[in-house]
Each structure stands twice: as C-alpha cells, then as structure tokens.
Write a structure and sequence with these properties.
16 helices; six-stranded mixed β-sheet; about 550 residues; alpha+beta
C-alpha cells in the first residue's frame, strides 16, 4: 500500500481526538475544531481548583513536566523534554494546522520554484525578539546554516544533503537553493523541526553552550521569566506576539518526575495540564469529572513516534544479523502495546510509523514473535543454554567458552517499563539484560558520542514525512555526536541512495515505492528493533479552554476568566 505524506483531514481525525466528561459519560468532541497553541502558569496553590467557586488564579496555567530540561534551545536537539518547555518561546518560518498543512508564521507567504529545487519565503514585518531587537532574514539564515543543519538531528539528516545555500537577498526575504527538488520542506519548517534563533544573541558563539540557552530570547507567544532549578520554569504572555497575545498571563511548568504524582496533582487541581497520561490511569481518568482529554500522534519534540531499540553495530556480538534476528524473534510487540501503552498506541508494524501508512504493506513483515526460532539462531551462533539458565559461549570466535550472554541496555527513566518487559522477554530465551537508567545528558553522551552501549531505547519521531524523521536513523552521514541521530551506527550506501531518491521526487507514488524498498531493506538488515507506535493522551482541567496538542499548546488558552 502507498505511504501518505502529510495528513489529510480524514487521517488527522483518526489521530487527534478531544474528549470531555459529561457527568459519568465520556463524549468524543469534533477533533477538527480549531484549537491553538501556548501554555500559561503560576505558583502551586493546593486544592485551588477542587471546588466550583470563583477561580483563585484566573489567567494562570500550570503544566506538569517530568523533568527539568537540560537547556531551552530547541534548535540543537530533538529531545522531547527540551521542546516541551522551549517551543513556546520560539517560532518557525511556518506552522502546521490540524491537518498538518503549512500555514504562515514568521513567513507570511512563499513560492516553490524550479520544480521544487528553490523555495522563496517572504517574512512577516514588525516582528521583534523578546529583547526588543528586530527580527530579520539574517536570523533565519544564521539559524539554518550555523545551528539547525549542524545540531538538529532531523534537519541535519534530511536537509543537509540537499541544501546548496540559504541566502537573504534583503531583510525580509529568504531563499533556499537546493541541489535537487525536495518535496517535504514545507512540513519541516515549524517550531519543532526548525525553530529560529536570534542571530544577535548567538552569532560568534558555540550555540551548545551559549548562556541564552538558559535565559532564552525568542519571538514566540511566551517570554521566559525565570527558572527555579529542579522545581519550575515561569513564563509570561508576550503582549506583542504577532499571532495575538495569549489568553493567559502566566505559564508555569512545574517539575513533577513521577507520573502517578502528576495525576494526583491534576485531580487535586494543583496543575492544569499533563503532556501525557500513564496508560494504567487512562480509563479511570476518562471518567473523572472536570477533566478533558486530547488524543494525538503529536509528541513533545516530534510526531508519529516509534519506540525503538538500537543495536550498536560496532559491537562484535551484533556483527552477525542472526544475533539481531534472534533477539527480534524473542520480542512480543503486542505485549508492549498492551502492558506499557495500555491502548495508547499499537505494536509497531514496520520501521516507519504506521500513521504514515494507510495499511501495513504486504511487502514489509517484521520478524514474528517466535522464541523457538530465537533459540535455534542463538544455538547456531554458539550461544548455548545449559538448562533453563542464561546462555553461555561455546566455540564463539573471540569469546572465551563459558562467557555469559549479557547485553547492556541504556534507557531514560521514562522508558523503565519498556526495559523491564524487554529483560523478561529476552531472559525467556536465555539472554540476560543489564539495564542502566541515565539522565538525558549522560544518555546522549554514551549513545551518540562515546558509543558506549550494546543496546539503547529511543523514541524516534518520524514527523509527517519519512524523509524528515526516518532518514536520520539510517543515513551514514548521521553517525556521530548529534543527539538522536543514527544510534545503530548503520552504514549502507544503497540505503543512502534510496533516501536521496525518495527525497528528490515530487511524485507521491514513486516516493511510496521507494519507501517500501527502504522498509524491506531495513527489516532484512535489522539495525533496530521496532516496538510500538505511540499515541499520546493530553489531560487538562476544564477551567482552561482553547488548549491544543501542538507545540504552542496554550497560545489561545484561557483559564478561569
């Protein structure tokens, strides 16, 4: 079946749903209703929203976040924690509407020339950075050439190979000159994929360590006020925002690491918004009065995300594809969908997110759950199981006999349930798993810079076109110290050329056929193990209206007014 690029209205309704509680009945509300984007908050007031009396904090929105972001520069990372907090402060050249179609943002209009090899953007007049400096085309050129194409893994992998130059013929015009036609550009210019930074703040510095990363200056609907490390971030509405001032005056992002504690805080009225609902709590919360829900394929920092285990192909134990195939046969994906996601997503059906495929392609079939086959492959590789214990080496080249088959596994805390279930499934075929839970900065260093891991779990967000978020996982040029890029260290010149071909044609049918070949090649070589396609459930209190699932989720919010 052909892949679809972008989401038509019919598909969009299948992946973004709004629910409200009407007494004890859960009703689904029209998901295409225009919701906007931004977030607002203030200090924690215990029990503030429990009753139905006059709201004690009108104009304030409090959102829970699971951890303090390492910084607030979304142009140098695809990390969800950073984007959840920072995207509210910035803008892209374009935005995306509910059907993921490009709409004006910092650019008000654009032309596509030379068959898709040249894009001309005309910038909005009168926009100012939060410090009062005027926004101009120089900011756009700097953001792409000096930051995004170097540090943002999706932009670097997808746009990097095709950009010839990005120039500003005047202060209000930016021209992208590409080496070949490039179809998905307009869908990767929003604040998630390409946030624009202030050149006057960053030029001549290392954007990875500039002090503005912790006291950001953007053009977005909210302005940074202060940070209380490990506790909260405070933002204020930008009264001069070109999209109109937000309907809330303050936004507080409160750090609450434990998902269960987040739910308690929401029910008590201590926070107004959760980015995600623990799967085990979802059914109960849907019946809770004064709460509303949005179900969406959007994630903080990306969309259409596939939870993926990367095999470090630099490790000798994974040089033989039979080992990767054995570990894949040992996995029951449906258990992950049932026991970890609790119906907030599905078992992965292929390397590309199922939301980008109308129905699973008959040509793309992942290795089935087959513990017997996994055992046969491991035996053939020389990893034998004495009785029911863990396997040990016997005549494995370069490995002393009796060495146990122990695989290291690195994860962020938010993936703990995945790690526990994976260890149980692999131990069932005699493969032991050593789990290490790391902070984001350490995880990024170990996996993408030092490459000090056997396996690691990553949520790879595909975006709204495979070229945007899938290519970075496989492109040879994406191996290196860029967070959330080619973790496997996969190198395949044929795969590189296939992605080049897919990105350069504007014909959807031709692109679909090429992506089908890409998926089959990935399944044959198995540099990754694809577990689940996630759907997220946002939850918020009904004292607030106008919230959306997008990166500017509170730009049109009103709370208690």
């Amino acid at each position: 079946m052909p892949l679809r690029f972008g989401c038509a209205p019919r598909q969009a309704t299948a992946h973004t749903r709004l629910y409200v509680n009407e007494g004890n009945r859960v009703a689904e509300v029209n998901p295409c209703r225009r919701l906007a984007a931004a977030l607002v908050g203030t200090s924690l007031l215990l029990g503030a929203c429990n009753g139905r009396d006059a709201d004690p904090r009108p104009g304030v929105l409090i959102a829970a976040i699971p951890g303090a972001p390492a910084h607030l520069n979304p142009a140098i990372t695809t990390n969800g924690g950073v984007h959840a907090a920072a995207d509210l402060l910035y803008d892209g050249l374009l935005g995306l509407d509910e059907q993921q179609r490009p709409v004006p943002a910092l650019a008000t209009r654009w032309e596509v020339l030379d068959g898709g090899a040249q894009y001309v953007f005309h910038l909005r007049q009168g926009v100012r950075w939060h410090d009062g400096q005027a926004f101009s085309a120089a900011d756009v050129v700097y953001s792409f050439t000096d930051v995004l194409l170097r540090f943002h893994s999706r932009t670097r992998a997808s746009l990097g190979p095709v950009v010839d130059s990005i120039v500003a013929p005047d202060d209000s015009t930016v021209v992208f000159h590409l080496r070949q036609p490039y179809a998905p550009l307009l869908q990767q210019l929003d604040v998630v994929e390409a946030p624009i930074l202030p050149r006057h703040v960053y030029a001549g510095t290392d954007p990875q360590i500039n002090p503005a990363n912790n006291a950001p200056v953007g053009t977005g609907p909210f302005r940074f006020v202060e940070s209380r490390p490990g506790a909260e971030l405070r933002y204020a509405a930008n009264p001069d925002y070109f999209g109109g001032a937000p309907g809330v005056s303050q936004l507080i992002l409160r750090v609450i690491p434990d998902p269960g504690t987040q739910v308690i805080a929401l029910e008590a009225g201590e926070v107004d918004w959760l980015y995600g609902v623990p799967g085990a709590e979802r059914a109960r919360l849907l019946r809770t009065p004064h709460l509303k829900f949005i179900e969406t394929a959007l994630n903080a920092g990306g969309s259409n995300c596939v939870t993926t285990v990367a095999f470090n192909l630099d490790r000798p134990v994974f040089h033989d594809v039979r080992m990767r195939r054995a570990l894949t046969h040992a996995v029951d994906r449906q258990q992950f969908a049932d026991r970890v996601l609790f119906a907030q997503g599905t078992a992965a059906s292929g390397p590309i997110a199922s939301a980008l495929v109308p129905s699973p392609s008959g040509n793309v079939v992942l290795p089935a759950h087959d513990p017997r086959k996994a055992g046969e492959l491991l035996d053939a590789l020389g990893w034998h199981r004495p009785t029911t214990g863990m396997r040990v080496a016997r005549d494995v080249a370069g490995v002393p006999d009796g060495t146990p088959l122990l695989v290291s596994f690195k994860q962020l805390a938010s993936f703990a349930a995945y790690g526990d279930l994976l260890r149980a499934q692999w131990r069932a075929v005699g493969v032991d798993l050593s789990i290490e839970t790391l902070e984001t900065a350490v995880f990024v260093e170990d996996v993408f810079t030092a490459r000090n891991f056997d396996t690691a779990i990553i949520s790879y967000c595909n975006g709204f076109d495979p070229q945007i978020g899938v290519r970075r996982q496989y492109a040879s040029a994406s191996i290196g110290p860029v967070p959330f890029s080619n973790a496997a260290g996969y190198r395949d010149a044929v795969m590189d050329s296939l992605f080049d071909a897919a990105g350069s044609t504007l014909d959807p049918a031709a692109r679909s056929r090429t992506y089908d070949v890409i998926q089959r090649r990935a399944v044959d070589s198995l540099p990754y193990l694809w577990l689940t396609d996630g759907i997220n459930t946002r939850a918020y209190r009904d004292r607030c209206t106008g919230l959306s699932p997008g990166p500017h989720f509170a730009a049109r919010a009103r709370c208690g007014q």
